Amino acid sequence: MIGYQSSLLSRTEVAEGTMAFQFEKPKDFAFNAGQYIELTLPGSQAAPSDGLTHTFSIANSPLDEELIVTTRMRKSVFKQAMSVLPIGTQARIEGPMGSFNLHNNTARPAVFLAGGIGIAPFLSMLSYATEEKLRHPIVLFYANRYLEDAAFMDALWNLERANPRFRFVPILTRTDKNYRGWKGKTGHISSEMLLTRVGILRGPIYYIAGPPTMVAATRRMLGEVGIDEDDIRTEEFAGY
Length: 240
What we know:
By secondary structure, this protein is α/β, with parallel strands linked by helices. Helix content is 21%, strand content 32%. The protein has helices spanning 77-83, 119-131, 153-162, 191-198, 212-224; strands at residues 3-15, 18-24, 36-40, 53-57, 66-72, 90-97, 110-115, 138-144, 166-172, 185-186, 205-210, 232-236. A six-stranded antiparallel sheet has the order 4-3-6-1-2-5, with no helix packed on it. Strands 10-9-8-7-11-12 form a six-stranded parallel sheet, sandwiched between helices. Strand 1 (3-15) and strand 2 (18-24) form a beta hairpin. Helix 2 (119-131) packs parallel to helix 3. The chain is globular, with a radius of gyration of 18 Å. 38% of the residues are buried.
């Protein structure tokens, strides 16, 4: 696996308790939308087992001049170190890795099913698809507990406005209708919800990313409505 040196450019709060970190994109580093990296913080290169190496999906387009990763700021050793990392600090990146990428056949729609911080690879794929004017019809179902938890909402609405082939369906799982004026979907991602927005369920390629329990439940739901295993692709975000 190829290693690169990078440096932290900025950090931004993108939802309550969720931060995005912008790193310098190393020269000659190329990736496909949806891939991930291993990030090692300074002082831990010789001992990655000390908790200062972490895996992150890249949240931005391969065409951008930087790399953006995002995470829930929990009390792990790594995340505590990330929260106080001075701007300009050097870090090591290994990768890219993974095959969670948009399929090539533009005649088949893509249905993205995201839970929480699992939005990261989808944001990368959607940004790239919009910039390159890819012809895939795409629907994104994005589930969060509360509106305050939902990262990158403005960016996603902007992508829907910019991409006529993309439809965005945000969902709040622990919020009642009309909470703070919320008029969107509530509850968990269901086959009924998919039927309403997707129509014929057999035909698209389904991508699921989020916490392991959400990925397992969503995969099980797709199986129950007859979606072939070969048409389901998953990425789990344990502890993110």
